[in-house]
Design goal:
The longest helix has 10 residues, at 28-37. By secondary structure, this protein is an alpha+beta fold. The protein is globular. The chain has a 6-stranded antiparallel beta sheet. Helix content is 18%, strand content 41%.
Length: 79
């Protein structure tokens, strides 16, 4: 069985499906924000856009698009 590689969300290419496996920032405010956006642990989604020129990543989780700053996407570990 192949093992999945854990990477930060920021590293993924457009079209890549992911599952959130770890949140580096455990502050209550950050965790609340992730819950509001649907990006809590075990959330499954797809990278829709990764725009380095604007410093944003857009993901689709359960049909809902969310745009994250790169510094937010960098704190989410995914497989």
């Amino acid at each position: 069985m192949a093992r999945s590689t854990v990477r930060c969300l920021l590293e993924l290419q457009v079209g890549t499906r992911f599952r959130v496996v770890r949140v580096i920032d455990q502050s209550p405010e950050f965790l609340r924000y992730l819950t509001e956006t649907g990006l809590q642990l075990d959330a499954v989604g797809t990278v829709v856009a990764n725009r380095f020129e604007s410093g944003t990543v857009t993901v689709d989780v359960a049909g809902h698009h969310t745009t994250l700053a790169h510094n937010v996407a960098d704190r989410l570990l995914v497989t």
